[in-house]
Amino acid sequence: MADQPESRLNGYIDHTLLRPDTTARDIEKLCTEAIEHQLFAVCVNGCWVQHAWNYLADTDVSIATVVGFPLGASDSDSKRYETEVAVDNGAHEIDMVMNLGRFIDGAHRYIVREIRDVVEAADDRRVKVILETGYFSDEQIATACTLAVEAEAHFVKTSTGFGPGGATVDHVRLMRETVEQRAGVKASGGIRDRESALAMIEAGATRIGTSSGVTIAGG
To answer: Which domain covers residue 93, as residue numbers?
Structure first.
């Protein structure tokens, strides 16, 4: 594999915990594991950003949070506000779900404006646009990637993990081919082992979202 990604796999991983029944103790464990295994980031729901920051402020581990999650159907203004609160609480990255229904309706200007609003609210922090690829054809995925790049998002991301399908190698490859080097690609949803993670990286992923970060890291 080019550049031997297996030797630096830990640095690709967003160690993720987005279950609705997550507790403070769960977040503390997630953060401890991320530090121990030198993972890139933790990804948590908005209510836990500040708690994670208390554990990670003096470390190299980034904090990502989700916006408009998991349906993407909240109003654009609320997504912007969620982003502003997350930044105030210490988030370094925003994983936003685009408005799937508006996209299906062909309201592409709406999608670009919504993403751009979040990018602006993130104030130079990385924004990843969750496409929820399980709903879409290859043509639609490519179009969504193009819109995200136009809106100056930093990443496109496959899925929430709560939708009809997770990451696939074919979708990741298509996303990479579409965005070229203009954005990162985050593969997320159903990635539970090292082999799967490496296959996604080989296809063009530059970040892996997974709740199995310790397993993949070899812990």
So the answer is: 5-217
